[in-house]
Model the fold of this input.
Amino acid sequence: MSVRGAGRLAVLGVLVLLALSACGGGGGRALPGAWLDIAVMPDGGAQVDLRAAGRLRSDAEVRDLAEAAARELFPGAAVRARTVTSRGYPFARAEVTGAYRPGRRVPLRLDTARAWRRLAGRGFDEGGVRLWLPSVPATVRPRPPGGASGVPEWAVGRGRPAPVVRVEMRPRPVRWFGAAVLLALVVAGIAVSAAAHDRPVAAPAAGVSIVCAVVTVSAAAGRQGDNLGVAGVLGGRVLAVASSAPLAGLPLGLVAAALFVRALRLLLLVPTAGAPCIARRPGRGGARTPGR
Done:
């Protein structure tokens, strides 16, 4: 496969990666009652989404309620609310700055009962709370009745009290560095394979790159940057770049696959040193045999 073909495969990998990332994220589905979606961000901030437009007169009321709920959940933090539309469903989002202090152990206490008293005062007698956390080791108490997997979700109202959630996040920055090492091995393998061309080392080098790329992508390396943010190692745009860098393993893996196929073809087509050559057909006078 030519270098141009490898470049096309890399571009295709980037497009697939963007499509997969666009498919993620929280749902914009409309549910009965009022729902608080709490998302703790890896940079020390948070987002509080309030989906409760059914019984309120205007978007401004929804924003005011979302801002008040965010201030109850994160006392002392800076809060700014705005209206957001997702999948055709409008809701209010309160963006919180300084929701917690990054560190090696981050405890959080989210008292949703205070926020729900405000919602109950506006006539909402049912709904729920959902919690999203960064991709770091964490414990959540109390666990929702639905089990320990997936997004924690608590139903509220009709005899079910709003939870006071206690969270402890324990980031492990070494996980991101492990993904970075794997990505470096991918790049090194591609460089060796491209430089070796038709030598026997080209195929093994490309094979190592493929394996490392698969491990990097399958281990959700793009989320390992959350460990850097929650721990306070990086922040801002630098954190965003560091989080997305290991995802380059996908297009680089496609380049390595193209080099691996090329190396195998060259090994099969080019004779090795010392291999016997095909004897030429003797001419009219016949061929002289050495020693006669």
